[in-house]
Fold this sequence. Notes:
This protein starts with 6 loop residues before the first helix and ends in a 5-residue tail after the last helix. It is an alpha+beta fold. The longest helix is centred in the middle third of the chain and has 16 residues, at 250-265. It has helices at 7-18, 28-31, 44-56, 84-93, 103-117, 147-157, 161-171, 207-213, 220-223, 231-236, 242-246, 250-265, 354-359, 561-575, and strands at residues 176-178, 195-197, 283-293, 296-308, 318-324, 338-341, 344-348, 361-371, 380-386, 394-396, 403-404, 410-412, 418-423, 428-429, 438-439, 443-454, 461-468, 478-483, 485-486, 496-505, 511-518, 521-529. It is elongated and about 85 Å long. The protein binds protoporphyrin IX containing FE. The site of protoporphyrin IX containing FE has 27 residues, from helix 3, helix 7, strand 1 and helix 10.
Amino acid sequence: AYTWPSPQYDALEGLLYEGRRPDGSSLAALVHPCRKRTQTLASVGAEWLRFAFHDSATHNVDDGTGGLDGSLVYELSRGENFGIGFTQTSADFELFPNKYISRADVIAIGAVHAVSTCGGPIIPFRGGRVDTFVAGGTGTPEPQQDIDTLTESFRKQGYTKEDMIKLVACGHTMGGVRSDDFPQLVPQVDGKAVIADFDTTMDFDNKIATEYLDGTTQNVLVKTDNVTMRADLRVFESDGNSTIRAMASADVFQSDCLDVLGRMLEKVPKGVSLTDEITLLPEKVTYAQFAIENGKLVYKTNLRLLQKLNTNPSASRVVTMFWCDRAGANKDCKGKTKSSVTVKKVPESPNISPVTLKLGYYLINYNFVVPIDANESIAKFWFEVDEGDGSKPTAYNNGGNNYVVDQDQVFFVPTLSKVDSISNNTGTVSRRGGGGGEPVGDFYKSYNLVVAVRDGTSPSRVYVDGYDSAVKAYAYAVQNTVDLQLDSSTTPIAGYKFYKGVFQSSGLQLTIDVKADADGQTYTQGFVGTAPLDNTVITDPGTINTDKMSTAGAISWREGWTFSLVFSLVAAAMFNWSPL
Ligand code: HEM
């Protein structure tokens, strides 16, 4: 079962169900709601699904090579990967990989979002795909191929003939053939580029099958006069139309697609093992960290709860964080337990991820900022949600383990750090495995990082391991270690002194592991984001209560009620959104 923290699970779950990076950049918003591109009017979802297929299609069951491994970005000059949709999709995806989410996982999550937002099933997602930086094998099917070649191509990918028919129907229910890419099949209209949709809807539905069967199909790969290019016709009739006939049922269509697309996303090279299925966490702790804000030491975190669509939590709900000190008279809650109510409630639109929306939920974040006395610090925390209706409060305590703060020796201080964009039009970067000489882009980022180290600790080394795979043109990830120096000019705050150093990255999603070697061990704050640094929105810490019991059921107080209610109204106004 899941326990916090599970950095890879947490990261994958976030991109899948929140649809965005921790800093707010949204992947899902590019495709949802089943969007068309402004310029080309192409279905973004169709482009993303095709992208996933073409990356996956190099899987070879005979030697275990290829599959969803991100190799497609190095294979775009091949005839079998023809089309502007691929270039646009690779640009969509390039911002989203990080240390725990490979480029191939982004491609798979993109396909899950695409199918789900256009009305298809929720394809179960497992993560852990491993990226390659070289082009893979060939063998992706092409429309001029005869049925034996097509069948062999799918066999090599690990599919039966029936699977092949299903996959083509499930893929070609979205999008179409472009005059730009296949002018011999689709002529321009009035001198303008067009897309000939495979069926009459943009949706992920059984129309691709029903229209084919009733003879009204507009699918170019069935109808074109250019008989050689009638790949879909050859595929669909290759078993006497029996599979496609079954798929005329809306239910069969959805369940067949769930099955074959699920398997398509799990075609990975031999040796890659995927995670368990990433399911939506009913409660999730995010952004847990020490911080120094307004010259004071605080501990910040966020409890994310699910809320059913079209419902609101009780207006009298009070969400409280409890914690035990790490040192002093109340160490490990031997004396008093501290608590503080949420300082801000932020409901998120269900639209943040089409998957969460389809599951029937939206998310509410309860932010906590609690003042910390460095001499007492914090050892572990948990939450209680009291609906204020007389029912027993619900405890969220990480399955009985509580949320453990593993160390307080070293942490990143965003509010004292800053980032500059530095123009850089001259350099080039080599793309691994070919291409080469890609422009670096117009700028790189220079991060002035400040890290707090507990006074009294005399570290032999304070350093930052940075990782950024969201780099232009799918070049190598930026990966570097920078040693930090004691900054004796900044007065220590709350028992912490500061170290600083500069990290440079041409990427767009730098995360850092902050480390201090001291007392014969390495203290680490892992996987910290570097946005928004000196633009961090600061919320004043809440008030500490020390006289409350810590066990669920024993809480009888209501202070903070008005406080939390006011904040929820402010949050609703600020975000100009309220749950339907
Ligand atoms: C026999 C195998 C297949 C052949 C010959 C084939 C061929 C094609 C061709 C020629 C296009 C038009 C591309 C363009 O104009 O840029 C296309 C589009 C598309 N294909 Fe396939 N395809 C096959 C299988 C699949 C599979 C298995 C999937 C996914 C499960 C898929 C998903 C798509 C999608 C979503 C589009 C629309 C893309 C868009 O509108 O941007 N295809 N396919």
